[in-house]
């Protein structure tokens, strides 16, 4: 081997059994090209523009702080499976929400609707939701059929 020859030629002169140093081998199977030189098939027509459908993110939580102007802090509790024990665990997270009328106080149940970013942390709008344990509307008069009860019927 001469010192002036390129390093690859030095390896070629050695009897190594790797096909990569010799520029290929017969053991490598090359598939024939199946592409024809004829005119390519026309592309399928492009569909008309369809808008991207994104699900609106909304959550429900309880107001924990309302001391800031037009901002409330809402704590959202969700159940998630524990990664190791596979039972459901309560996960809590606090979000800043926009309250333009300052109408929410601590303890109110609100729904958070996703809106455009108002500030670095405020990307939700607080919307009032009636609590489940609150007073229910009494619409018993509108639900009646207009028939008197058995005790109110005249005896004959």
List keywords for this structure.
156 residues; mainly beta; 7% helix; 28% strand
Describe this structure in words.
- This protein has helices spanning 7-13, 140-143; strands at residues 58-65, 71-81, 88-98, 109-114, 122-128.
- With 156 residues, the chain is mostly beta strands.
- A hairpin with a 6-residue loop joins strand 2 and strand 3 (88-98).
Between the first and last Cα atoms, what is the distance in angstroms? Answer: 130 Å
Radius of gyration: 37 Å
Low-confidence stretches: none
- In the sheet with the most strands, the strands line up as 1-2-3-5-4
**Helix content class:** under 10%
Q: Biggest β-sheet, characterized?
A: 5 strands, mixed, barrel
- Globally, the shape reads extended
SS summary, helix count: 2
Structural class: mainly beta
Q: Encode the helix/strand succession as letters.
A: HEEEEEH
Question: What is the structure about, briefly put?
Answer:
This protein has 156 residues and is mainly beta. The protein contains two helices and five strands. The mean pLDDT is 76.
How are the SSEs ordered, and which strands pair?
Blueprint: H1 7-13, E1 58-65, E2 71-81, E3 88-98, E4 109-114, E5 122-128, H2 140-143
Parallel strand pairs: 3-5
Antiparallel strand pairs: 1-2, 1-4, 2-3, 4-5
């Amino acid at each position: 081997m001469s010192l002036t020859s390129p390093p690859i030629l030095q390896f070629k002169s050695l009897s190594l059994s790797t096909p990569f140093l010799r520029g290929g081998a017969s053991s490598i199977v090359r598939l024939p090209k199946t592409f024809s030189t004829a005119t390519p098939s026309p592309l399928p027509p492009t569909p008309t523009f369809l808008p991207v459908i994104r699900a609106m993110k909304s959550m429900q939580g309880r107001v924990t702080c309302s001391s800031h102007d037009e901002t409330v802090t809402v704590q959202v509790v969700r159940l998630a499976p524990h990664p190791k024990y596979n039972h459901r665990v309560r996960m809590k997270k606090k979000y800043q929400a926009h309250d333009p009328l300052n109408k929410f106080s601590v303890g109110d149940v609100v729904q958070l609707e996703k809106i455009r970013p108002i500030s670095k942390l405020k990307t939700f709008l607080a919307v009032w939701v009636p609590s489940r344990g609150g007073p229910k509307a009494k619409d018993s008069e509108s639900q009646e059929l207009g028939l008197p009860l058995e005790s109110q019927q005249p005896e004959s």
